[in-house]
Request: fold
Amino acid sequence: MKISFKNTISILIKRFFNVIELIVFLLIVILYLFRSYYVQSELVNQITSSINKEFDSNISINKVRLKGFKYLQISEIFIPDQYGDTIVFIPKINLDFNKVKLLANKYVIDQIVIEDALFKIRKRKGNEDYDYQYLFNNKKENNSSNLSLEVKSIELKNNTFSHLNEDYLCSFQSVDFQCFKLNNINCLFSSVDFSNNYLSADVEQLSLVEKSGFKINELNTKLIIDSTSMKFSNLNILSNNSTISVKDINYLMDDSFKLDINSFKSELDLMDVNYFYNSPLLTSSKLKLNCDLKKEEDYLKADNLSLIVGDYSFVNADLVISDSLDYDLRIYNSEIDIDDLISFKYLKADGKYQRIFIPDNLKKIGDVSLDLSLNGKLNNFNSNYTISSDYGNINGQLFVVENQDSVITYDLKIKADKLAGELISEKLNVDYFNANLNIKGTGLESNDLDLIIDGSLSDLKYNNYIYEDVRINGSLKNQSFNGDISLSDKQIDLVFKGDLDLNKNPYEFDFTFNVNHAFLNDLGFLDNALNPKISFNSKATGTGSSLDNFTGDIDFTDINYFENDNKYFFDSLNIYSNSNDKEHQVTLLSKFFTFDMVGNYHFDHFSNDLNSYLS
Reply:
């Protein structure tokens, strides 16, 4: 990252202006020689001979045409490297003169127009230098150094500029600074001031298309470059999908690579960002990103960072990114709207984007307040978070690691306070609860979850009774649970152990469910003055998503029923059920009775009648 970003940018800028310097030098030599030659056809040979002698090169110029010493046209300038390949080919350059002072060696050019030119910067595999550098290595002392050239404007029309470093493997899907090609370059440089190691100009209406497909429709800025620094003022960029405006950019091109970007404001489409950086997230919404950026030798820092996503979400943050792509992120006083969050897709290990899944019962949250701190790389980080909403508050930690198989694993710690029960299920009559959970595993979608859950729920209010301690320990894979659930307080004590597989239809199950005591009145299941209590052990195996399609066995043992001081012992009860499309058979076996029922019926009617009788 350090080499490919820091050195490449500064080298490319220097190399580009080396080429510009070379072209300007050619113009100076041409203008200088016009004082001594009168036949223009002979001047071409004299000019190219002088240039090639100066640079020990094979530069050629096909034709030079001068009208009244106010208009000059140079045709087919060809600058090859030492291998004969193209560095620069310019079919035509037009120059309009304003002032010519031969005795003072001073020339003022109103306009230079360069059309359909090709500029190529190439570094061959294994070479230390770029191909064009031999020109400057061979350059002799310039006897015309006292000649002054002022250019008021330079216009580029449909030019091409490419850079190739053969020591790197090129990417054609994104903008690769080691291997890029800019086509259809159009631009006007006005108020140009060019002297030794200094260039300033107003850049107007710059447009281009990179080989990857990225397009700049318009770029405007004030540009100042010297031998060690570059400055952009009032920079405005418009692409097909994004806009950027910057008050000023100051960049040092020495080894320190210091960069200051003040008042960066943008409206970004992540599809544009993906041309430069493989974004871990995509969204159809535009991102309004504002910040101040500072780049030191080994880190990039974003202060006063604000991000607006969609219609209602906004993030305030401070961010530091090291050259090794370690992130130090702080998010504060931020609001996230669930609808805006659903619009995002995340990058999976296989390189494809998957839409973020939010269960229906969580979508009703609307918006949440977020505070977060994150340290590490995008595929290996730890974070602390606080989430607040009208449906409760959550805080905790998240640890993310990418394993050797490129699978993202996470360790999520959750401490929740007064969460609304409808976040679990709208069907259950749960008012609110607290949670303390540790979740480890992989997957974000319901069909690819592979989790280990360990923790507890407390103060869980159901049927107007508050359950004090619900312990959970088990694994959740897709929609299959295997583990233990226990509940222990004064009014109820029970343990569940086994498997529930909700992936199949009908569901499959194999579990034990033991109740040490349960006061049915206090728990809100019955309204009986005798306040009955029950206890039993049970084991269930079979399939089914309801009593009506249940097929399997349920065995109850050690059944005890208490009313005040009276105890009733029922020993055991076996329930066998077999259900198909035509009929449903249920058989009950106990020490006291046997019951068998076959037919086409629904158990919800029996349930209602039984509840009425027991009440």
Observations:
- Residues 1-6, 35-39 have pLDDT under 50 and may be disordered.
- The CA atoms of residues 372 and 385 lie 4 Å apart.
- The first strand starts at residue 60 and ends at 67.
- The chain has seven helices and 37 strands.
